[in-house]
Amino acid sequence: MIKNAKELTTLRDHARQSMEIRLDRLVDPSPEKHKIDILVCGVAGCASSGSLKVADAIEEQIKANGLGEEVKVIKTGCFGLCAEGPIMMVCPEHVMYTKVTPEDVAEIFEEHIKGGNVVKRLLAGENEYEEIKDRLPQIPFFSMQKRIALNNCGIIDPENIDEYIALDGYQALAKVLNEYEPDDVIDEIKKSGLRGRGGGGFPTGRKWESSAVVQDHEKYVICNADEGDPGAFMDRSILEGDPHSVIEAMIINGYAVGSHQGYIYVRAEYPVAVQRLNVAIKQAKEYGFLGKNILGKGFDFDLEVRLGAGAFVCGEGSALMTSIEGKRGEPRPKPPRSAEKGLWKKPTVLNNVETYANIPQIIRNGADWFKGIGTEGSKGTKVFALGGKINNIGLVVVPMGTTLREIIYDIGGGIPGGKAFKAAQTGGPSGGCLPADCLDTPIDYDSLTKLGSMMGSGGLIVMDEDTCMVDLARFFLDFTVDESCGKCPPCRIGTKRMHEILVRITEGKGEPEDLDKLEVLAKNIKASALCGLGQSAPNPVLSTMKYFRDEYMAHVVDKKCPAGVCKSMVKFIIDTDVCRNCGICKKNCPTGAISGDKNTPFVIDQDKCVKCGVCMEKCPFKSIYKNA
Amino acid sequence: MSNTCANCADAQVKAQKLDEIVAKYKDTRGALIPVLHEAQEVYGYLPLEVQRVIAEKLNIPLAEVYGVVSFYTQFSIYPKGQYQINVCMGTACYVKGANEVLDKFRTRLSIDVGECTEDGKFSLEACRCIGACGLAPVVTINDEVYGKLTADDVDGILDDYEAR
Amino acid sequence: MNKVNITIDGIKLYVPANYTILEAAKEVSINIPTLCFLKDVNEIGCCRMCLVEVKGSSALQAACVHPVKEGMEVFTHTPKVMEARKVNLELILSNHNASCQTCTRSWMDCELQALANKLSVDMVRFEGENKKLPLDVGVSIVRDPNKCILCRRCVSACKNIQTVGVIDMVNRGFNTQVGSPFGMPLAETPCVNCGQCINYCPVGALHEKDDIDKVWEAIYDPTKHVVVQTAPAVRVALGEDFGMPIGTPVTGKMVTALRMLGVDKVFDTDTGADLTIMEEVAELIDRVRGGGKLPLITSCSPGWIKFCEHNFPEMLDNVSSCKSPQQMFGSILKSYYAEKNDIDPKDVFVVSVMPCTAKKFEAARPEMEVDGIRDVDVVLTTRELGKMIYDIGIDFPDLGDSDFDNPFGNATGAGVIFGATGGVMEAALRTAADLLTGISADNIEYEPVRGLEGIKVATVQAGDLTLRAAVAHGLGNARKLMEKIESGEEEFHFVEIMACPGGCVNGGGQPLQLSDVRSWTDVRAERAKGLYTEDRGTFIRKSHNNPAVKKLYKEYLGMAGGSRAHQLLHTHYEARGNYED
Asked: What is the DSSP letter of A359?
């Protein structure tokens, strides 16, 4: 139990010693017993590609080599380079190894840990390894990023509160409780210019203020960790890699608005995050950061984790609150705003995970520091989940105002296979697609909205020339229709009708007036759906129609899919000049659509063909091609 | 019934666990969803009997409980079998007779899609394309993949599982 | 009350701060269209029909739930608003089984049809998949989910007002529907058949089970002696089916119309009500004097009876064993009346016209018969009677008045007020006071049990007895009251419970009033007014003074509470499980 700020600082200074070798600012090699820290990413992508087995193998090697005193293995949060997982890092040198298998571990021990030589074949990046110390910052993937949220991820053991404290954890809370009146906290957050990282980008300080001014002894703060956008996993990475940063921020939030109870609403699909949060909450309680009379300053605050149950709409604030209340996660009309009548009709502040993760650092470093990063209207940094047709799939944190080109080509390493960039989708099912023209637009809340998309939670999916934008719009509507709560007709029936039209178009049965219908529906759903999710559901269609109208026209007028994706409009054809009559295609065709033999030319019966593409894949002579 | 009946004993253990779960959340506001999560962990799904107990003990109308269960995709009112049969109904499989294969599973097991056999051994689902068109029609049973099936193969496969 | 300045379509208003935009607009005679909205019942803003533009907000806002605010500027008919309403309505229509020609709502007003007309929807541009769900046909209520437009008014009525909660929103997205648990028929749920859901349904998704054909068949069957009894609440509502003002008493026209339909006799259920009072007061005095179980709870409302059987089975002994007036009267018609008129009871065909859907269930309860002869053969709702009259082309408002047939035509004012909440209590108190004191009291209007307060409590001196009485209407109130009684928090001698809010005048079988009427006019109060006026106009206002009833006891039944009375006029109840097999 930590009773006051002084005790906290003492603990920090002590805990710091055992972490020195992991920190860049290493000045003096500490007299600690162990000399090497091996950090292994133990979350998300790395975990599913086997990082936990790698960690086990390292433990075995430590034992086998009798290095228990010298080498320590720490399961950390995300490093960001998810596609290269499992990732591990050897400190103090900060050598990062990628795609490590348990079989590689013995070699790492033999060569690096014991021999002092880096295992070059496992290094991150393609360039020849030069100088260990400066290695990391040289990779653009890292050098162009600026981590605020995710700052501790990949450095600390998220299940060890001491390591969080060692890196100034809970200092912001101590500062707030000792030096700030609640209003001062709100002023500081307002001054920082921080905006909500979960969707609309509402100014966080103003949000807190509107709840703070309501007189009520019962108020709530909620962390929205119902990350549902397909392809976005930054919240998961923060919760799994640095859960205390969120907890600390929520306590500060509680103090600022006068709330004594918080909830963290997490998707049930994130069991590791839930487990880490529960561990972290337990530790925070043991240390006295949660509970009564926190740090001896007379403020009480408690925290509870609530699980979602598989409903995307619960990411919408009012739906999330109804879900916590134990009901169907349906949004309700606003006003009244949640700040006045939220959870159980009490004043409630709801912030997203990434938003919270920024708070402790804003308090510690001051609003001016934060304000110094980013653009006029959007301050600080933003985490993006890079995905789709891009080389470096993973999590990146960049200052607001970084251009799409920098993110995609410099940090993301460009598009694989030398293909051309076609569009970037941001904002998930609520967002839109940005064409190549927009590559040099500095990204922030306002610029994205202006372009017909939105920041959303930060999913950034890159599409190349092989993507059909009509099909993509259909895919997103698929999702929306599945996930609509069904409360209001525009979303319940409107998105369904839009989906039906898009299916028609992608099946080659579309008519030109279908495009008008889509536009009427989209415009109306945007204007009249009950909640923000419904209102933004047509965005993927509107933005693709805006930037890729010719593709829609090709589908409805020429009945062609230029990208060759929409199966009913695609023909697989055998080029008889190239065909060597080997018969492999015929053998592999699942529907018996291919006829021909040694003497008769091979042809595909288009009526029988189901366009699975197996023939093209199997043909050793590349004699089969797609005709869009 | 006698206490030695394994099924009854199992049912009693589960019922007791359910009671404990409800009791644990008795004073929690908004208890329904946590209770449903834990009840599903015990039973594997949320049948009428379970929902009825929860409704009664939490003093919530059963229709509301059912409304909540049917809203969230993580909750299921159907049991999943020990062996979960997934028949791919993607286009390629469909054209190659997946429907007949599915029908054969239906009649042989006397269950419909989404249901589970009474002994809890098999449950049957029809799924979207699993991208194994070259093997059409495809069926997966837990992690095993069976390709190029005909309706005649179904008996043999099920005999094999029943013998396990 | 704080007030605020707002502007609606350029008109400046100064309105109470707790108004919604919808209410404010009404002040300046702008009727914003609504569909899911029903004041105090369903205020959730989900149908998106009442959308308006509020300056400063990019999305359109639902006027029915959006509060006014100082300086607010509202626009109710911009092109954006008009188009949004229209598209939303088209979307609703695109997933509505619009079989209007054959719909029960076609001759009454269908709110959806009215809206389509109002918004000039001339075609549905967005067609696609339509839901195809099975119908649920019960003894009392029919649900057609394919006509349901998911306004949720029925769910509010069932769950929030009645606390019955057998229907709720189920599934999600396009598959959302109003449904019962596991899709079971309502008959297998603790549904009490009160029909409040029907009263609130804007379309034909909910209606009573239609029994009109059975009545026509009996009328044209020469072997049947068709006797109609009409409940008190019917006479102050039937006119509404023909455009007459709410609560207009049309007793005489109703009798005329029934005769024109070709029935043999038209009697007043009020006689049954008077009988009920005789029996129930006897039971009350017996219990009070004899140390029997108290409080005695009324049993007139079949919705309440089933509710009690499901929810308070351990209190069933408190419920009076008296059959309801319709059953008592049916039983008398098949016995005494048949005997007197030398008709084989098997040929007496009793049709009850009731404001109630639960009466259909009640009449079908297996125990509601004597020696194999059913008390009541068919129950029609007020709406169904209206439909029959309409069907054969009778111009109802123009009809002259007729009197009920004798011997059961001269009922009392006590019987008449049965139709309003507190009426049974008041009628019982009138009789109890006289019987206990042996003096005919002049002061017979018991104000504390009248009116629309959810739970009314009164202490009444009757002779040497000080009776504590309570009245609850609407099952939500009934539940509250019962919980207090069960826990011992409150003690009463006599309790009246009516399933429907307001009592029978607002029964589930009454003429439908559309939401834009219901939201702003208290239908219950208007109809009750009609009943109390008729009470005041009757010559005999106490049940025990009803000459036909007196004669009946003298000639046939013997004592109130006696053995013959018990055989014909009393019944029993059974505890019912909730969703048990």
From this structure: H
Last residue within a domain, chosen from C92, C121, C156: C92
Rounded to an integer, what distance in angstroms lies between the CA atom of residue B81 and that of residue B117?
Answer: 7
pLDDT tens-digit series, residues C195-226: 999 999 999 999 999 999 999 999 999 999 99
Nearest beta carbon to residue A528 from set C48, C92, C126: C48
- Superfamily classification of domain B83-163: Glutaredoxin (3.40.30.10)
Residues C176 and C220 in one domain: no
Q: What is the DSSP string of A185-198?
A: HHHHHHHHT-B-SS
C489 carries an active-site annotation: no
Nearest chain B residue to C176, by CA: B71
Cα–Cα distance, C235 to C531 (Å, whole number): 8
The string of pLDDT tens digits covering residues C440-499 is 988 889 999 999 999 999 998 887 888 999 999 999 999 999 999 999 999 999 999 999
pLDDT tens-digit series, residues A273-308: 899 999 999 999 999 999 999 999 999 999 999 999
Look up the ipTM and state it: 0.94
B65/C181 CB distance under 8 A:
yes
CATH (domain of C72): 3.10.20.740
Inter-chain residue contact B134 with A590, CB threshold 8 Å: yes
- Contact A36/A70 with Cβ under 8 angstroms? yes
List the Cα angle C220/C226/C232 in 5-degree steps: 130
What distance in Å separates the CA atoms of residue A129 and residue C579, rounded to the nearest whole number?
72
Tokens of C25: 């607009």
Counting as contact any 3 or more CB pairs under 8 A, the partners of C are A, B
Taking the C-alpha atoms of residue C547 and residue C565, their distance in angstroms, rounded to an integer, is 17
A323, A567, A612 ranked by CB distance to B33: nearest: A323
Residue C148: give its domain's CATH number. 3.30.70.20
Give the lowest-confidence range in A225-229, A370-374, A525-529, C51-55: A225-229
Contact B77 C165 (CB under 8 A): no
Q: Which two tokens stand for residue C310?
A: 């499901």
Residues facing C445 on adjacent strands: none
Q: Is B9 on the interface with C (CB under 8 A)?
A: no
Task: Find which of B24, B133, B149 to mutate to test the A interface (most A CBs within 10 Å of its CB).
Answer: B133
Pairing, β C72-75 against β A381-388: unpaired
Same domain, A306 and A429: no
Per-residue pLDDT tens digits for C256-279: 999 999 999 999 999 999 999 999
Taking CB atoms and an 8 Å limit, are C128 and A485 in contact across chains?
Answer: no
CATH number of the domain encompassing residue A504: 1.20.1440.230
Q: Which of C279, C283, C384, C496 is catalytic?
A: C283
The domain containing residue A49 runs over which residues? 33-142
**Confidence class for position A229, pLDDT limits 50, 70, 90:** confident
In a shared domain, residues A257 and A305: yes
Q: In terms of DSSP bridges, do strands C225-230 and C348-354 run parallel, antiparallel, or are they unpaired?
A: parallel
Given CB atoms, is C166 within the 8 Å cutoff of chain B?
yes
Residue A345 shares a structural domain with residue A358: yes
Pair (C21, C137) in one structural domain: no
pLDDT digits (tens, 9 = 90+) for A118-144: 888 888 765 434 444 444 545 566 667
Cβ contact (<8 Å) for B61 and C159? yes
Give the pLDDT of residue C83: 96
Rounded to a whole number of angstroms, the distance from the CA of B67 to the nearest CA of chain A is 7
Residue C129 designated active-site? no
Please indicate whether residue A191 or residue B6 has the higher confidence score (pLDDT). Answer: A191
* Contact flag A489-C67 (C-beta cutoff 8 Å): no
Last residue within a domain, chosen from A315, A336, A371: A371
Question: Is residue A445 pLDDT above 50, yes or no?
Answer: yes
pLDDT at A12: 93
Query: Does pLDDT of B151 surpass 90?
Result: no
**Helical packing angle, B48-58 and B62-71, nearest 10°:** 120
